[in-house]
Design brief:
It is built from two helices and no strands. By secondary structure, the protein is mainly α. The chain has a domain at 25-60. Helix 1 runs antiparallel to helix 2 (45-60). It is elongated and about 45 Å long. It starts with 24 loop residues before the first helix and ends with a helix. The model has no long low-confidence stretch (mean pLDDT 79).
Length: 64
């Protein structure tokens, strides 16, 4: 499969205006908490995957 080595670029409306992150740090911490809760409630591999995702995301959050 061929890959285009050029980065994808584009124009965005209001390019000079600051943009909000997709999630705030508080929202991301809440999401990690919900994923941990899902891990405890779902004893299937899906619950285990939720716990792994929570751990991965938690490592990427800034420390407050």
């Amino acid at each position: 499969m061929e890959r285009d080595e050029q980065p994808v670029t584009g124009d965005y409306p209001g390019a000079g205006e600051p943009r909000l992150p997709l999630l705030t740090a508080a929202e991301a911490r809440d999401a990690v908490g919900y994923l941990h809760l899902l891990e405890t409630l779902d004893l299937t591999p899906r619950g285990q995957a939720a716990g792994q995702l929570a751990a991965d995301l938690a490592r990427r959050l800034p420390a407050d």
